Amino acid sequence: MWKFSVMKDAFWQILGRMISALSGFLIVIIMTPLLGPLRYGDYTTILSYFALWSALSDLGLYVIGLKDLGKLKAKFGINTPKDLDTITPSQKEDFSLAISQFVWARIGQIVIVYGIAILVAYLVPSYASNPYIARWLPLGMLFSAWFMIAGIIQLPLQLFWKMEQVSIALVLARVAQLAVLWIVVVWNFWPHIDHDAVPLTLFLVMVGSVVISSLTQTLYTLWQSSRIIKIRFVPFWDHMISHIKENGKYGAAFFLSSFHLLIVSLLISIVYPTISGFTYVGIRWLGLQL
Predict the structure, then answer these.
(1) Dihedral, 154, 160, 161, 165 alpha carbons, nearest 10
(2) Which in 26, 65, 127, 217 has the greatest CB count within 10 A?
(3) How far apart are CA 174 and CA 224, in angstroms?
(4) In a 3-state reduction of DSSP, which class is residue 235?
(5) How far is the C-alpha of 193 from the C-alpha of 34, rounded, in Å?
(6) What does the alpha-carbon distance between residue 241 and residue 192 come to, in Å, rounded to a whole number?
(7) 161-172: string of b/e by CB count within 10 Å (b at 16+)?
(8) Per-residue confidence at 6, pLDDT binned at 50, 70, 90?
């Protein structure tokens, strides 16, 4: 039975990622003619900057937490969401507490790391002097944070082999972003665009589209996870600190696995800022996206 569940979950994850990849390709096709290489460089700089910090906020602890909670699930003999009604009240309380502590500990990490990230960003001269980046960095932070939170609160879905709901959330996120971009293109709010001076409002819509995307994903994931088990607000600081101390060493490898790709683009954006007319970042990221 468990082998079938693993195969089913793998199928849904692959399908969801394929649909997401195709949607991402459409988004690139729509977005690049509107923004041009300079502003597309700014757009990807914002997203890749927080992607680097997202690796620090995770430290690979999700996988370790999932493993620990899986052991607790097996200990209580819970195989399906219906089994939660058959265990003792104290066992159900322990299971709910363990999930809630883990979720809030991870959200606490995100708040701390992203708070530092936004402060550091404004200390980078090429970011602070560029109105496209400086004004909409907080939106990039919100997108990345919501995306990370969606990945955390999917925990009950992953524990109980409900990854089709995670894939649906991912697809809905892409659809939400495509809907925003479709409205922009069809209604043609900006008929004549100078790519060297893209309107700040148009750039706001482009960045805002990914925020709407991640918020859609988070809300749907929260709804589906809550149908299995309610995530309560519980004390989590001690749990967060002890978890990092015990397992933080695994985070270095996780962080470095994406560091080499992201840091190169961020360094290019600092050394050759788009505010000075360099298109290198936009061109490089377009190639990587394709």
Answers:
(1) -40
(2) 217
(3) 18
(4) coil
(5) 7
(6) 53
(7) bbbbbbbbbbbb
(8) low
Q: What is the mean pLDDT of residues 259-276?
A: 88
pLDDT band at 1 (very low <50, low <70, confident <90, very high): low
What amino acid occupies position 225? S
Distance between CA atoms of residues 10 and 4, nearest Å: 10
What is residue 2's predicted lDDT score, i.e. its pLDDT?
Answer: 53
Alpha helix ranges (H) inside 122-130: 125-128
Q: What would the DSSP string read from start to end of 5-37?
A: HHHHHHHHHHHHHHHHHHHHHHHHHHHHHHHHH
Q: Report pTM.
A: 0.88
Biggest CA-to-CA distance, the chain: 66
Residue 38 to residues 47, 117, 126, 130, 274, Cα–Cα distance (Å): 15, 23, 13, 11, 6
The residue among 243 and 168 whose pLDDT is bigger is: 168
Provide the b/e sequence for 100-117 (b: ≥16 CB within 10 Å). Answer: bbbbbbbbbbbeebbeeb
User: Cα separation of 181 and 179, whole Å?
Assistant: 5
